[in-house]
TrEMBL record:
Origin: domain of life: Eukaryota
Transmembrane segments annotated in the record for this chain: 15-38, 47-68, 80-102, 123-142, 169-192, 213-235, 241-258
Gene source species: Crucibulum laeve
Protein name in the entry: G-protein coupled receptors family 1 profile domain-containing protein
Keywords for the protein's UniProt record, in alphabetical order: Membrane, Transmembrane, Transmembrane helix
Length: 318
């Protein structure tokens, strides 16, 4: 898309904004609040940060709503922000996938590693916002130098005709997506090897895989490929409506993947039975639970079987 050819996508605005609001401004904030406030829900800080970045991402794309005045300061600000928000979300997603890979790579405590856990955690939490600030500032400077390039496509304000808009953000995000898919494949290989190891060493252990886990993994992997395809289309400047809808559905996809887990449903249920403390105590005494690793759990914090303990709860990792 260059300065002479601007897509008119205003007819998509109701659905586009609805997807952003439902996922990024309703669903994910509820999930974040549950992660932070519910006593029985434990999540890795990288996953919480992932959800926060997608909320910011969604807000950036919904700043204008139905207003399309390219001369307004709000339009200028949105154009700069939406060039930083995708890079932030892409990095935060990569961080979560790398954290899962790291957990499978080291199923026991990380001792003597080159990257101390606190250093790795701090780096993972800050990198998304560094990318956001850098790309937003660069976009703002370029827009200030060439205000005539500011446009609106009926959904949000952006700017066209500059190589950075086309190649800088898109190439960065496509690169992140490729890395995400590579790590997903590595996680699948590692999980399969661990599964075979457990099957040979502990033949009586419960090895059943949760159907909801399979569905969430399939959705995550499928949407990664779809998003990569959309990113490539943005690179080629092929004007289609569906890549914009894919982009709008990213927050609600994250809501579905990370918000459909048993411990979250239990936290949202006000009338639930109190746990049997004596039974849980006896169970904990007979089966080592590696409680020191709770902070590494990226999703469902519940564990119940020996195979879950040995594999660092793999069925609840995604």
């Amino acid at each position: 898309m260059d300065g002479s050819e601007v897509p008119e996508l205003g007819y998509l605005a109701p659905v586009y904004l609805g997807l952003h609001i439902a996922g990024g401004q309703v669903g994910l904030p509820i999930i974040i609040a549950t992660f932070l406030l519910a006593k029985n829900v434990t999540r890795h800080p990288s996953l919480i940060n992932f959800c926060i970045t997608w909320v910011i991402y969604s807000v950036c794309y919904c700043i204008l709503g139905d207003v399309n005045d390219i001369n307004s300061p709000v339009c200028f600000a949105q154009s700069a922000l939406i060039h930083g928000a995708p890079t932030m979300s892409a990095v935060s997603t990569l961080v979560v996938v790398v954290e899962i890979w790291w957990t499978f790579r080291e199923p026991t405590a990380s001792r003597g590693t080159r990257w101390p856990r606190n250093t790795r955690l701090t780096l993972g939490l800050t990198l998304p916002y560094i990318a956001f600030v850098v790309f937003t500032l660069i976009s703002g400077v370029l827009q200030n130098q060439h205000p005539d390039l500011l446009i609106t496509n009926g959904l949000y304000c952006t700017y066209a005709g500059d190589p950075f808009r086309r190649w800088g953000v898109s190439v960065f995000c496509v690169t992140m997506l490729i890395l995400i898919i590579i790590f997903e494949i590595a996680i699948g290989v590692r999980f399969y090897r661990l599964y075979r190891q457990i099957r040979s060493v502990f033949p009586l252990a419960d090895r059943k895989t949760s159907p909801t886990l399979v569905i969430r993994v399939l959705i995550f992997n499928l949407y990664s490929v779809i998003t990569l395809s959309a990113g490539i289309l943005f690179l080629t400047d092929t004007l289609r409506a569906w890549p914009f809808m894919v982009q709008a559905a990213l927050p609600i996809t994250a809501t579905i993947i990370f918000g459909t887990q048993q411990d979250l449903f239990k936290a949202w249920c006000f009338c639930r039975r109190k746990p049997n403390i004596e039974s849980n105590t006896a169970s904990n005494e007979s089966i080592p639970t590696f409680r020191r690793h709770d902070s590494l759990m990226l999703t469902d914090s519940s564990t119940s079987t020996p195979s879950n303990v040995i594999l660092m709860t793999p069925r609840d990792m995604v």
